[in-house]
Each structure stands twice: as C-alpha cells, then as structure tokens.
Write the structure tokens for this entry.
Amino acid sequence: MHDETTDPAILLTLAARLSDDVLRDLFPSATPQSIRDALRAMSGHPKAGRQTSTGAPPFPDTGGGPKPSPLKDHAGSCILFADGASRGNPGQAGAGLVLLDKNGREIAAEAIYLGRCTNNVAEYQALIAGLETAVRFGCRALRIHLDSELIVRQISGRYKVRNAQLQPLFIKAKGLLNRLDDWSIHHIPRSENARADKLANMGIDGRQQQIGAGA
C-alpha cells in the first residue's frame, strides 16, 4: 500500500515547516539537519506482507495499484486499536490494527509483517498503518488506543523523542494526524488491546509460515 504521506518529499515538506529551534526541542538528541537527512533516506513502510483478520495468507505489498474506496459513511468519528510485536527486540516483527466506527462496528482489520525491527518501531508502524487506514476510509475524528505508554506520551507531547530511529516515524505519524479534523490518543492495558495484539502476531506468523513453505 502506498499513500502520499509515505513519500519522503512529503515528510521533508512537513519537517521544513518546523523551525530548527522547534526540531531541537522535539528531538534534543539530534540536529535539525540529521532529522531531515533521516527523512530523505526514508522510503515509507518496509515492504510488508498483509493478511486479513481471518488468517488468509499474506499477499505482497505492490506499492501501487487501486486502493479501496473510502467509505463515506465513516466520515464522522472512528476508533482505532493498534499494536506492534517484535520477537527478539529487535527481531521478526508485525503490526495489527482494528478500525471501528463510532458505534463499535468493525470497518477494517489488518495483520502486517514488518520484517526485522524493535518493538518500539513496530508500535509506531502499527500506529502509522492504522492512521493511513483511517484516512483512507474517510474518518475525520479518531480516538486512538495503544498499549505502548511510550508512544502515547510521545505523540501527546508529554515525552520528547530522543531515539533517532523513532524520530522520522514520529514526524510521519504527526503528519497523518494533521489530516484529521480531531483526534485523541489513549493508553490502555494490553488486555484491552488483545485483538490488535493477536493481529500483530498473525502478521509475523503468516510470514514465517510462508518461509517454512519455501516462499
């Protein structure tokens, strides 16, 4: 899946709107130029295998082609649950997301293979994938639920993003949030995020099954 927000040029444009002083405040462990260099090196999501929540075999991300048509009925409030998993930290990783309408009806659910990365990177990739899905389906207001306290506090501005690997992901997530009319983000216990966690692990398992089958 490819969205215009995965284009490094778009991310650079977002970063360019921030002054050097703001970038230093957001990312105290890096120089403004290093942030822009990191964004320049980005190519969006790693190619990922995706599968449905019913456990269908993953299919490769082609990076193009037709996209699902937005469902205009969901142009109001939506609810997102997202989770990332990494076995080994860093290790084989996956992301899971569940998007609901304001009445709790499921709009979309995905299990995504991310390749090898840390747990925090997987959590950010899950959030980004969920935000892309919400935008694609026409959600304008979004209530986000994550069980990663770190990501919630960074997105809400309570924590600064000191890890250089997470900084471009943070900017990408904020760029997607800026496309919504309204949003809120909330930390929840892992037990309340069980479905997204299961999908994240399905993303890993699906890829491993492919490898085991000689894919």
Observations:
- Confidence is low (pLDDT under 50) at residues 1-8, 43-48, 51-73.
- The two ends are 21 Å apart (CA to CA).
- Residues 194-212 form the longest helix (19 residues).
- Residues 194 and 213 are 28 Å apart (CA to CA).
